């Protein structure tokens, strides 16, 4: 049997503990960095999703605004057409009324 010094055995045990603790610290740092990177990736992913959703909402809003503008233009044109027709009908009515008045006056004057 080889005789070993108890002090050297304690030193080896302490060195092994120190090495294992250093390894654990490195592992914790690596985990922490990966855990920090993981939320950063999630934040980037969420930002991309938010951007896509915002683009979709803006396109939808623009589409609806275009539809509303088209409805407004159509309603305006229909309104003008109704006004023009009403004026034409009124003009024909006044023209007819004018002709009727002339006819009545021509009968009465003779």
From TrEMBL:
UniProtKB keywords: Coiled coil, Membrane, Transmembrane, Transmembrane helix
Transmembrane segments: 70-90
Superkingdom field: Bacteria
Coiled coil residues, start to end: 11-38
Protein name from the UniProt record: Uncharacterized protein
Species this chain originates from: Nitrosomonas communis
């Amino acid at each position: 049997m080889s005789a070993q010094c108890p002090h050297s055995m304690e030193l080896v045990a302490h060195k092994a503990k120190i090495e294992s603790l250093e390894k654990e610290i490195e592992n914790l740092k690596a985990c922490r960095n990966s855990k920090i990177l993981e939320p950063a990736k999630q934040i980037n992913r969420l930002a991309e999703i938010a951007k896509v959703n915002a683009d979709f909402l803006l396109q939808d809003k623009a589409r609806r605004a275009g539809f509303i503008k088209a409805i407004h233009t159509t309603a305006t044109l229909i309104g003008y057409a109704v006004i023009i027709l009403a004026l034409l009908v009124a003009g024909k009515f006044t023209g007819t009324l004018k002709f009727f008045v002339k006819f009545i006056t021509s009968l009465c004057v003779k």
